[in-house]
Design goal:
eight-stranded antiparallel beta barrel; 38% strand; alpha+beta
Length: 323
């Protein structure tokens, strides 16, 4: 019995030691994404790519010394590792909420005769390191600097950053009372003295808000899991847009990237989506204010939240103008 207790303590301690913190961040605006074990974001022009690597054990050695010596290239995918550096990297301290330490390096390298601009951010927490690795063609880094800065500022380790609550979708500001003019006061007095007229009949209740076909966009938070010894540990929480496309024929499609066809259901290739993305393509049904979305074997219940809006689990989706 004692041996069993010690064994349980050992395995519990090992599991605790393996626990890794999650990394939270906002997806860079306007970038397309591909998310597997590593989150990859690509600029619209295709000449700047951001690779996000979740926390992994740092291993022996000092974090700062190892980064300044090797740029922790061993934590970057082999095909993304830098080639020959024409000049030493410029390394400086960075700030990420919840991290024990962060360093950022800027350097250039050459691959197949072409020079590339690189930025690498390393984040230390709980004996593990997360990496943000940016590769840009010559001149593209400056154009993508604002998107990268906003993404880094949104980052936190462990708990997500506190955010101001968005205004309620259906609220409308009440008009402030206006000071009464002399004419208005006189009219009010005359009305008070006149015989009371029969109150007009109350207008009929408005029908439920319509939900026209189109592209609807909401800001959601999704988990990219990471596993240690077969157990979920760490991973990445990404906050960014989700797109839901609704057609006049009752078809539905969802994606974390803008749908093809510029968000116009009439220009979207529904047959291709049904074949290539069956789990994200399906149908929808609207009964009164209740909206039911079906994707593959998943059913999602939503409700209307005003003209051209609906709500799913507290996230509001608003109809966007096709491009």
């Amino acid at each position: 019995m004692k041996l069993l207790f010690l064994s349980l303590c050992f395995f519990s301690g090992a599991a605790f030691a393996q626990a890794l913190p999650p990394l939270n961040f906002d997806a860079p605006a306007g970038f397309s994404s591909r998310v597997e074990d590593v989150a990859t974001f690509t600029a619209p022009e295709g000449d700047l790519t951001i690779h996000m690597y979740p926390f992994r054990r740092l291993g022996p050695g000092d974090f700062q010394a190892r980064f300044r010596e090797t740029l922790l290239r061993e934590f970057v995918a082999v095909e993304q590792r830098e080639g020959r550096l024409p000049a030493p990297a410029k390394v400086e301290a960075a700030s990420v909420e919840g991290a024990e330490a962060s360093l950022i390096a800027r350097f250039s390298d050459e691959r197949a005769g072409a020079q590339r601009e690189r930025t690498r951010l390393a984040i230390l927490a709980a004996g593990a390191v997360a990496i943000v690795d940016v590769t840009a063609n010559s001149g593209a880094a400056q154009r993508g600097a604002e998107a990268l800065r906003a993404m880094i500022e949104s980052m936190s380790v462990g708990q997500p950053k506190a955010r101001a609550a968005p205004p309620p979708v259906l609220s409308t500001p009440e008009a402030a009372p206006q000071p009464a003019t002399a004419a208005a006061a006189s009219a009010a007095a005359s009305a008070a003295a006149a015989p009371a007229a029969a109150a007009p009949a109350a207008p009929a209740a408005a029908p439920p808000a319509p939900l026209p076909p189109g592209m609807y966009v909401g800001n959601v938070r999704r988990l990219i899991p990471s596993f240690v010894g077969g157990v979920q540990s760490g991973g990445m929480w990404i906050t960014g847009p989700q797109y839901i496309l609704l057609s006049a024929e009752g078809l539905a499609y969802r994606s974390y990237d803008p749908p093809r066809g510029g968000g116009d259901p009439a220009r979207f290739d529904w047959k291709r989506a049904q074949s290539a993305e069956a789990g994200n393509t399906g149908s929808y049904e609207l009964l009164g204010n209740a909206l039911t979305l079906r994707f593959g074997g998943e059913t999602i219940s939503a409700k209307l939240a005003g003209p051209g809006r609906f709500e799913i689990f507290g996230t509001f989706f608003k109809r966007a103008t096709p491009k």
